């Protein structure tokens, strides 16, 4: 059972206060062409313009701000495909503590370089979030480091939920929000914030159909593990929903929408060429959801969370090059 008292308005306001002057207030953008394609008033919450190029900085910084001085002084550790890695590395630099980051063996070069640039020690291990988690947990015990998980901590969800509290101030008549979902930190935080601030808001998660652990789990009513998640959206390759976000999402979300790989590529290209928004594949799935499932949202006021913009130049070039 979720302790909803932990996710009250006061806790989100506390997170907003901690992030003030540290995290960016990211803009909301619109593109008439994409709104027409989607058949709705489609807005983009541009977390690709957040520090480290993704929403992850919110949760990482807020969690570090809540740690006891002794915990921070020992150093922190996390496991991540890239965006949370950068977020923890940068947040640790604000608090002048060391960060150890476990990243996959096939991590994006852009994300590796950025994480290293923030001063973190990087160790590459495995290919799945679960492999990285096991390795990082062992290392945390061995080195007495404080774990800052990508989504398995309520404080992370509070930080990520500030995306919505900020968005509701920018778009007070918003009816629907579409959220990329991997482990569930962003979707869980937004669901909890919606319950606290706008219960009537319709929240939908969007994920690749080849990495549909959330859709399957929601259909089953319990957490299910999938065998593989071979998607271009490297930030959404979780094999199962997070244990902390799952019950929150299960109670609040209106549905989990699936999109295919071509849908994601098309959304990236449209964002780039028509809206002039650079989104990584994981960040573009929300817009893909608005386009693919347009009939569900026709004539409504919809916001798609562009969760990140850390995309390899080669991937962008591939997306932008028409097939021969």
The spatial strand order of the largest sheet comes to 1-2-10-7-8-9
Runs with pLDDT <50, length 5+? Answer: none
Number of strands: 10
What oligomeric state do the depicted chains represent? single chain
Spatial separation of the terminal alpha carbons: 54 Å
Biggest β-sheet strands, sense, barrel: 6 strands, mixed
Average pLDDT works out at 96
| H/E element order | HEHEHHEHEHEHEHEHEHHEHHEH
**Approximate helicity band:** 40-55%
Categorize the overall geometry. Answer: globular
The percent range for strand residues is 5-15%
Number of helices: 14
Give the structural class: alpha/beta
Using the CA coordinates, give the radius of gyration: 18 Å
Primary descriptors:
324 residues; alpha/beta; six-stranded mixed beta sheet; 14 helices
Please give a structural write-up.
The mean pLDDT is 96. This protein is globular. The protein has helices at 9-19, 32-38, 56-66, 69-74, 83-94, 109-117, 129-143, 154-170, 185-197, 213-220, 245-252, 261-275, 281-292, 313-320; strands spanning 28-30, 41-46, 76-79, 99-103, 121-124, 146-147, 176-180, 202-208, 255-259, 301-306. The chain is built from 14 helices and ten strands.
